[in-house]
Amino acid sequence: MFQRGAIFLLLAFAATTGCDPNTASDSSASPSPLTKDETKHPSPEPSSIPDKSDSKTAGSPETTARAPLSNAEQSLFFAGAQDGGDPLPDHYVKSNEIRHDTWFPSIKDLGGAFIGVGPDQCYTMAAAQDADLVFLLDIDRMVVEVHFNYEVLIKASATPQALHQRFNTTQKDSSIAMLEEAYAKLDPKSRRHRIQTYVASRETIYRHLKHVGNRHRGDVMTSWLSNPDYYARIRRLYQENRVRIMDGDLTGPETMKTIGTAATALGVPVNVLYLSNAEEYYKYSRQYARNIQGLAGIPTSVVLRTIYNKAWEHADSLWNYQVQPLADYQLHLQDPAIRARNAMLRIVDKQKRLERTTETKGLSRINMPPVE
Fold it and tell me: Is 1 domain-assigned?
């Protein structure tokens, strides 16, 4: 049995991070590191994330720091093969999903492991969950490199405002120097790619983090940068070596198996699996079903997905935010008649286990109890 006190993934096809180039004006991808023109905006950008230390937050008070993983635990956490990332033509280094707070009642303080796809939106959900372990994976190597850069800069930044400024023109050189020092032991090619990724994505991320740092519902702060407690949780997870960044494919034979094996070996339930809209881009293959079956959860473990479809009520301008028990999802993946997300949705709708509309606009649920 998993215990909350025990030690406690990121595929994204190019558009699976809540960024659809055909539908969203907020889905601008960063160009290739070799073609980015840094001379277009030479003027320093002003600081944009206000200090919200006196504002209300959506999370519980900051929790007691855990001990870093022991050497034996790190060996388990970081062991295992990965599927490998690809250099894709378009890179989505930011998300256009903005209402992750619709999921907070379903994930608040669940603990356990978080598996997520996409860039920094994963930090908001992992923080709301108060995750004990975090697995971040993507098939686009550039998104993976963005996370590695976040790791270095988050560790060096005590506040959300400080992190934001690491991407400011005025701190570009010092941030690059910081990254070069952190990557000094990497092979030259890997080091060069990560630095190029910072240079190419810097301006896009700087502008994006401005919005993330101001995200709120009324006077409640709802993102990892607007909520100081959430930022502290993410920074602590990195400091404690509880975040694993991976090249990976949800449908591949290696990465998901590795994650399931590591979480089980450490006695950590997989309590949140965040898919964004990735399911639009693959079928429920036998390999995928095995991958999901290999995730050991608890009764409150959930799957989170976003749906872009005009027939669904949206919480923001684009997305419906859906939650489903992990065990229920695993059960449906055993059905040979269900080989895609839409097929599953049609079946649960017929079974009257799909709530298209709920007490929260744009939130849908599959076989979930109502929020008390």
Answer: no
Using an 8 Å Cβ cutoff, are 212 and 120 in contact? Answer: yes
The answer as to whether 42 is a domain residue is no
pLDDT score recorded for residue 85: 67
CA-nearest of 266, 323, 269, 325 to 294 is: 269
Give CA separation, 199 vs 48, 49, 171, in Å: 20, 21, 12
pLDDT tens, residue by residue, 173-213: 999 999 999 999 999 999 999 999 999 999 999 999 999 99
Question: What local confidence, expressed as pLDDT, does residue 352 receive?
Answer: 96
**How many domains in the chain?**
1
Gyration radius from the chain CA atoms: 19
**Among 29-38, 98-107, 268-277, the least confident range:** 29-38
Instruction: Give 204's contacts (C-beta < 8 A, 6+ positions apart).
Output: 28, 30, 93, 94
Low-confidence winner among 11-25, 74-88, 331-345 (lowest mean pLDDT): 11-25
Distance CA 188, CA 106 (A): 44
Residue 27 located in a structural domain: no
- State the residue range of the domain holding 161: 56-366
What's the pTM value of the predicted model, to 2 decimals?
A: 0.86
| Dist. CA 117–CA 134, nearest whole Å | 11
CB 129 within 8 A of CB 272: yes
In a domain, 115, yes or no: yes
Query: 234 and 242 in contact (C-beta within 8 Å)?
Result: no
Q: Which residues contact 330 (CB under 8 A, 6 or more apart)?
A: 292, 293, 295
CA-based nearest residue to 208, from 219, 220, 223, 195: 223
Specify the pLDDT at position 34. Answer: 30
Rounded to 5 degrees, φ, ψ at 161 are -65, -40
Task: Please indicate whether residue 33 or residue 368 has the higher confidence score (pLDDT).
Answer: 368
Contacts with 363 (C-beta within 8 Å, 6 or more apart), sequence order: 102, 103, 315, 320, 321, 322, 323
